[in-house]
Specification:
Elements (H helix, E strand, L loop, with lengths): L1 H57 L4 H21 L5 H13 L9 H30 L2 H28 L5 H24 L7 H15 L7 H30 L10
Helix pairs in contact: 1-2, 1-4, 1-8, 2-3, 4-5, 4-8, 5-6, 5-8, 6-7, 7-8
Length: 268
Amino acid sequence: MFILISVLLSFSVLISLMYLSKQRDSTFSRKYDVIVILREILLLVRQCRSHTHQSIALNKDLSNEIQDIVTQLDIKSNQLIASSAIEYKANYRVFQLMLKSLTRDWQQRTIARNQMVHGKAIRHCLFLIDEIIITWLVEAGREDLSTEYHQNWHQVSDSMEVLTQFRISIQDINSTEGYERSKYYCNKLRQKINQLSIISPLTLTSPACSKALHTLDDLINNVHYERNIDCLYQLTSDISLNIARVYDQILSELTEQLFTPLPKVSFI
């Protein structure tokens, strides 16, 4: 009788462990799927910013390309809501409304306003990904990864904030006061990019990033540097791209240790 009870208890424990393991895998799989979708949305928002910027600045007809992005954003945001846990659905519906506003009357925007609207959506998307990652790390009990991730995220978040301040300053760069303010944020931005190079040396030694750093140096040190506002807004997009690449590398390494690697994507 004692043996039978022991066997039944062992079997019950085994069944419970298998159930908990299945639940854990299901939860992790859902978080992974949500991160993949948010990552795809992030790339689409970047494409939207690029196309609308070109249309406004260069008067290029990219209406078909922009409409394709609008369609894809709608599909992906619906997938995001459908794939998410119930406690996140309300937040993602708010995010969906933000995405819909990206291409609402964009033809009437200035370049500065267009950059701001898309930049806000990009930052919001990154913060949503960060929220998922933090919860995932807690549920996985990976304090070792959590400490490193928080440090890296802090560097990425600070870099985005400084980039935003620099982007805001560009519209007044041709005034004396505006130029001094832009130089101040240029210097801070250069420091942040150099700090990010510790996290991702290969990403930030790319030709595009090296060129961006060289332009920042020129703007800081050369008072006769041609302050072309369109070119400077493009510079902020290039720097934003490199920050996104650094964060994507952080994400890829983290998800590989928690679950499975993220699919390869091409940043633009």
